Amino acid sequence: MTDVLPEYDIGIPLECRLLCLGLNDTYLVKTRDGQYILRVYREGWRSVSEILYELDVLLFLRRANCAVSVPLSRKDGSLIHPVAAAEGTRYVVLFTYAPGKDPAYEADEEEEAYQYGKALARIHTATEKFQSAHHRCVIDVAHLLDRPLTSIQPFLAHRPADWQYVKTLAERLRTRVIGLPLEMLEQGFCHGDFHGGNAHFADDNTVTFFDFDCCGWGWRAYDIAVFRWGASLAEKEKERWPPFLRGYRGERPISENDLQATSYFVALRHFWLLGLHTDNGRDFGYGWMNDRYFDRAMKFFRAWEAEHLAEEPVA
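Now predict its structure.
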């Protein structure tokens, strides 16, 4: 990063450490004056327009006094630094560091879920008038279900019974979601990944959000449901979901239609996650997406079905 960091007015970097490899590569940058986050977008993952949409909303939220990690300009005023890599052009953005620590729900589960819900609601309220000239994906049924199914199918070719189960469940879920009806649900800007992480908690309970890489326009009920999904994965839905809702409702209302929709969007979120993994195996690797991985997925779907669609069991 010796060619990238000097382009920012942050002083002399003392350290640039790789934090994680995921959809993008994330580095922690330390200088004498503070810490920063450097993101290197994977080649082909996001277009310039999609990245600029993400950066637009972050700057919009900062102006609205929401606590978010925001992009920093280079010395020439631009926000994106293109880098020629072996695999093609990759884009680099430097962000402010989110103060505080990762949520530690075991320490104060109810309070942190409550504060998380309040902070998410503030972002939904603040972005009611957000607009961008740049393109971003729409978080719709095609994004959450149709494209994931196409990516998942080859991985279940040797498990035809499970593939049949997944297809049948997907169609029943589609029918339920469309019948809500969808046009009655609130739409707007969505972070897309409010699963209980992607935030740091400061000592004064300020919640600073980061990683808006999955953002887009969609149903607010889905954005809310991602937290419910994360709590369900951790087998903590009963402990975290009610205080989260109290926090959210303390800032803005949720209609009964939207609240009902969250249960269906929990399942759609899991379809989306499987699609994300299987569609990006070239970057993540394929070895870990083995039978144990899909055994866990089938367990999740069957448990969700038993709770929410028990009156119509899947064969």
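The chain has a mean pLDDT of 95.
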